[in-house]
Every structure is written in structure tokens, then in C-alpha cells.
Amino acid sequence: MDDFLVLQFIKISSNHRNFDKIEEVLRQPPALGWIKVNTYGSSMGFSNNAAIWVIFRDHNTKFLGVFSKNIGASQCLFSKFYDAMYVIKKAKEICWRKI
What we know:
Blueprint: H1 3-9, E1 36-42, E2 47-57, E3 63-74, H2 76-94
Antiparallel strand pairs: 1-2, 2-3
């Protein structure tokens, strides 16, 4: 059973947006010897539920690692700065120089 049918069955309405245009986005691997880092920082306003999530991949798109961390009370912009600083700290600990 797909997600939409499950929502209908338990009588939960979905709020979805209609998009005028859908564009294909192609992921580009980093150059040889570099590590690609995707970061996600999130919070709901100023709450105790801010968190960060980070994934590392090499130039062959091989998965190198992932981590997430609850950073407590924070605003969204701060969580985005926090994840960038945390990535730099972790890369230094692992001796990754090209991120």
C-alpha cells in the first residue's frame, strides 16, 4: 500500500503544493582526492529540537560516513553554521584536508 493510500485510510489529509516546473538535478562527484560533504541543519523557530545531519562521500561517490547530532536550543541559521563548523572539526580529526 503506498503512502497516499495509508494517509487516506487513517483519514489524514495531505497538504501538497502544485509545481509549475520540475527540473532534473544531477549530482556531481567531487574532483579526484576530494570529499563531498552534504550538511543539513534544522530547527523549528527557537526550540530545543535543533539538529544537524552530515554525510561524507568520496570522488567515486563511495559512502565514507554520516553523523547526526541534536544541538539543543537553536535557531535555524545557527544550526547551519554549527554543522559547517562541526564538519571542519571532524575533517581535521580524521586528517581529511580536501573537503
